[in-house]
């Protein structure tokens, strides 16, 4: 069965963005550190790079390694939409969970106005052992999908936001994950892969 994997950047205080959705405050280190970190993560997860940027960083023809589908909330979709990009991950099947987004925003994007748990359960049951499903964000959607989350890949940045969008925004529901692997980078970022216990 396919897995649902939450691959996301997080501050030390558990924020995936600032109060206004901003994420440009995440420190990436000096030019050399930033390039090494980006090359490593982009090589490992090339499909998480938006389509508009793939050619510029040499990933235009890179195959999807882990995911063939992305699920995101309106907050995660909004930055691309505001930039006039209606299909940010054209190399993936795209689902946006939103009760307010117009269903015909883009023919390559499926708007899901209802139950995200039903959507994810259906995606996980699809025939064949194909690539996994990437949960791109945001916090409310991650909170709603916690019962179906199989793995977390957390890029933890050495910064405290103080306020903003939490990685998980939902009911109190302690859910234990085990650390499968952890990699530290010279720019202070740690990437931790966790699996559901």
TrEMBL record:
Source domain of life is: Bacteria
Note one Pfam family from the annotation: RibD_C
Query: InterPro entries given for it?
Result: DHFR-like_dom_sf (IPR024072), RibDG_C (IPR002734), Riboflavin_Biosynth_HTPR (IPR050765)
All copies of the Bacterial bifunctional deaminase-reductase C-terminal domain together span 3-189
Name the Gene3D superfamilies on file. Answer: Dihydrofolate Reductase, subunit A
Q: Extract the signal peptide range.
A: none
Q: What is this protein called?
A: Dihydrofolate reductase family protein
This protein's species is Streptomyces endocoffeicus
Q: What is the lineage of its organism?
A: Bacteria, Bacillati, Actinomycetota, Actinomycetes, Kitasatosporales
């Amino acid at each position: 069965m396919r897995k649902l994997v939450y691959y996301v950047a997080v501050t030390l205080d558990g924020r995936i963005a600032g109060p206004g959705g901003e994420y440009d405050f995440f420190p990436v280190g000096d030019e050399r550190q930033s390039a090494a970190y980006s090359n490593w993560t982009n090589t490992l997860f090339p499909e998480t790079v938006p389509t508009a940027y793939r050619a510029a960083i040499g990933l235009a023809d890179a195959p999807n390694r882990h995911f063939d589908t992305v699920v995101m909330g309106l907050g995660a979709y909004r930055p691309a939409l505001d930039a006039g990009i209606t299909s940010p991950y054209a190399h993936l099947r795209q689902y946006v969970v939103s009760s307010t987004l117009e269903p015909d925003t883009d023919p390559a994007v499926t708007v899901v106005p209802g139950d995200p748990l039903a959507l994810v359960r259906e995606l996980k049951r699809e025939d064949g052992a194909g690539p996994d499903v990437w949960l791109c964000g945001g916090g409310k959607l991650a909170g709603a999908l916690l019962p179906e989350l199989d793995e977390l890949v957390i890029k933890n940045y050495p910064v405290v936001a103080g306020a903003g969008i939490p990685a998980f925004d939902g009911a109190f529901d302690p859910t234990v994950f085990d650390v499968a692997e952890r990699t530290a980078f010279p720019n202070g970022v740690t990437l931790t892969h966790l699996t559901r216990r």
